[in-house]
Amino acid sequence: MSVAHCGDFRQTYREDMKVLETRFIRVSVGAFVVLLYLFPLAAGNYLTSTVTTIAIAVIGALGINIVTGFTGQISLGHGAFMGVGAFACSYYMRVAHLPFWVAMPAAGITTAAVGMVFGLPSARLKGLYLAIATLAAQFILQYLFVHMDFVTGGSNGIVSPPPEIGSFAFDGDRSKYYLTVTIAVMAVLFTTNLIRSRDGRAFIAVRDHYLSAEIMGVPLFKYRLLSFAISAFYAGIAGSLWGVYTGYLSAEQFTIAESINYLAMIIIGGLGSVLGSIFGAIFMTLLPQILTVGTGALAGIFPKIGFLIMSFKEGIFGLIVILFLIFEPDGLAHRWRLIKSYWKLFPFSY
Amino acid sequence: MERPVQLAVENISLRFGGVMALGGLGFSVRKGEIFSIIGPNGAGKTSMLNCVSGRYHPQKGSIAFDGHDITHRPPAARARLGIARTFQNIALFKGMTVLDNLLIGRHIHLKSGFLRGGFYLGPCQKEEIEHRRFVEDIVDFLEIEHIRKRTVGTLAYGLQKRVELARALALNPKLILLDEPMAGMNLEETEDMVRFILDINQERGITVILVEHDMGVVMDISDRLVVLNFGEKIGEGTPEEVQADPEVIKAYLGGEASVFLGR
Lengths: 350, 263
Description:
The complex is a heterodimer. Chain A is mostly helical. Chain A has helices at 13-16, 23-42, 45-70, 78-94, 100-119, 127-147, 149-152, 173-195, 198-208, 210-215, 220-246, 256-269, 274-301, 306-327, 332-344; strands at residues 158-159, 164-165, 168-169, 248-249. In chain A, a hairpin with a 2-residue loop joins strand 2 and strand 3. By secondary structure, chain B is an alpha/beta fold. Chain B has two domains: 26-82 and 174-184 and 208-263, Rossmann fold; 88-172, Rossmann fold, CATH 3.40.50. At the A-B interface, helix 8, helix 9, helix 10 and helix 11 of A face helix 2, helix 3, helix 4 and helix 5 of B.
């Protein structure tokens, strides 16, 4: 039997800067990723594609968390940015005949450029005023989605071709799952690293105290714009993958409701937290589905008021979100930290 | 021995609408000295610091630092030249740990952009460790080892003041502007802070501009000082000279010199 250290001793800065601090955490996270990759082998098509949508939401939520959670610039245009990415990716594949592997990053960069344009007001506007400016972005882009029909197919929508490697097309549930989950894992890694290095810290500094950030040599406008760009890049990637997932794009998929959905994800999950983005994405994707199943079952039991129960769905959804904000204002990530610190010393209280 | 001038402030006028905050103010700070700005409330001391650090832009006059005209440069550019400051009301990044606050001080010295940071490959990690080492020296120096991983917002006031000083030092500045570093501190904390300021000045050779209401401290540690009243200079010189200046005694102290003699 090996004797473990009583406590967690670090002897170098390198050790101290590790993200996954102890061996237990490293093993658990490794096991989780392995399970993630084994998951579609055991699960059915329905569950597999549900997790695919969660993975897309994770990428999108990470994106909006970078601009809103970490840099403190409220963005109400995230849904539209996803649309830009989705339509751009489809356009590059259909018209420019680029392979998906080039079209997706190109769509990300296109979205980043669009995000920077709509991030320009952040030079002068803060807080709610900026939120309204980004809301304008949402509506302008939505207008363009409907009217630029040579790119977006207008109100008819447009197909989004599947990615291919040689003759293998990613058109099945499983292959889409692996593609999306892999990119989501990469996005999580990238964000985690970003936040613990120079520019990520600068983002948080801009959020926490923009005046002193500037005094410390962080150019505000550059970092606000950069956060919009990176955030929109994530949205562009998420949008491209959404196109792959559905195979069909239309303007109605990227409305203000989508933007607010993403904002709700990071508020419920935890602002300024990578883990929070993941929790929020899972929560906001699963809750409506669970409610659908739940109210469906209830309606089966009480067939006479079935239509009533079914119509409660949206209301219950809103209620749960409100209750969450009241009882867990710091988000699920905070709750997770509390749970972890409770079990750390279990069964001793201190 | 006459030390070279590091900061030359000439004829600064600052107006907010009809209010004259600073009217034709000029002084020069020499390399390596502790220079204090004193004056009653509303005299324009903090406004002056804000002009030097770049938060306010004076309508007239010029500010030169180390031979560069910085009058119209943005604050971030001034930080890169080596000007750091602390604030009267603590202005730390409350959601970050003490270490991260200090690492923001290293921002201008770090090179990894968001791409290298996001992939966190060799050079980025090496750089992070190198600068962590630099920051840890400051942590040692200001005796805040025990709180280095604490979130700043949860710390006591006196400690936050110290962390703010540490963050300014992390910039590795040539000139540090301290806006009331002793405000709201008890005697013990004040003594600690004075010791740190003297060490910063003598061991690290950093020029200090101090705005402070504690006259005992100001008269004890300043090499020279300037006295402001209603945005204008009414006296300048060594503590002895200023204390003997009848104009200063009249305007600032209402006729009693004993206030200068400390607690």
